[in-house]
Amino acid sequence: MTESDNRSRRIRIWDSGPFRRLWFVGLAGSLGLWTVQIGLTVAVLAEHSGSTLAWLLLAGTVPGLLAGPVAGAVVDHVEPRLAAGVALAVQAVLIMGMAVSLSQSLIAVAGCNAICSIAAQFPPLALQRLRYALLDERQWPLANAAVSRIMAITTILGAVAGSGVSDLGALPVFGFACGLQVLGAFVVWRMPVIGRMGLDTAAAPRRLQLGGGIAVLRRNRAARAVVALCTSWGLIGGGLTVLLGIFGTDLSGDGRGVALLFTVYGAGLLVGTVLAGQLAATTMRTHHLTAYLVQGVAWTSVAPLATLAVPLAIVLFIMGIAGGVIIGIEVTLLLRDVPRHLHGRVFSIYHLADGMSERTSLALVGAALAVLAPTTVVVIGGLASIAVAMLWSLGSRGGRRSSGLSTPPAGRMATDESG
């Protein structure tokens, strides 16, 4: 494909009004939740230890993780606009509940966060279905790269907005996050009806079924690779907010250091997602694995640089670039050969694997911070992440050698080459 072809496809994506609205809904929802996450981090670390923050975040997010597979099945069987709109509205209410409870009871904050995390499972799955229904299949990789930039933009803007808790208090900051959820719900409800967007629900059975996704993963090595490798990120991402919150607070004594570190990391994510949009489909799998290894090495390097603002920022920027490449191509690799009516369930399994590794990591970080220095915890997480990526790489190579005796059918060639 020529560069001019690539540009024309990108232009057609952004010229689509429904796609722009879906992108905005994803940005509003993600930015609101990340603002709350950073706001909680700054507020809790001002009065409590990093271990307390870790346990608070863990208690508030595990229910959402467990609800993921059910959310995927629901989104595969109901109108996605309904699922996304209702979930965003519920999140808006619960965010204000957290704001009111923050000065009263951390248990109440964790309870509101827990229900909010359940609601948060629905919008990403619903928006993904709507995007794939709207666009031509050849446009999916570019759409995924464009949507992945939401995480980068969210990381930067959410860090700035959330850190305002130290100066403005919780109510204005959480009120801003609540408003974003309400705006996202309004926009998604104003979208054209699903029938006009060509959403194919005929292939999906009418009864709510949780199966199908695992069966697809058994047959599709490319999708299995993505699910396995995402656990490598979980070993880092589980404690990322807590540990960068600690380092940022130590650097400045308030939320400004936290905002700085997450802003630099978010800038790297943005660069990485732009690079991901330029990658050829035939090289995606190699770049995917390489980025995971670079990410692990960069996170391990954070430990000796934790008290040095400039070197720490440089390493986080590099780590962000690797992370941006990952999120820019990961969904494309995951869903490339998955039937449309199973996208929600496969996507939810991917989120479940990612979330399980993150929550396990967060629990271990919370326990480790009671007896170990934060820098030691960083090294352990970084080395574990590298080990997981390397082990999967070795296992994948072995699988390719053993399968090299037979030629896959033409319809499976893309799956086997990208696995």
From TrEMBL:
Its main location: membrane. Pfam families: MFS_1. It is found in: Cell membrane. InterPro entries: MFS, MFS_trans_sf. The chain crosses the membrane at residues 21-46, 52-75, 82-100, 106-127, 139-162, 168-189, 226-247, 259-277, 289-306, 312-335, 362-392. Residues 397-419 are annotated as: Disordered. It is a multi-pass membrane protein. Keywords: Cell membrane, Membrane, Transmembrane, Transmembrane helix. One of its GO terms (cellular component) is plasma membrane. One of its GO terms (molecular function) is transmembrane transporter activity. This is Arabinose efflux permease family protein. It comes from Actinoalloteichus hymeniacidonis.
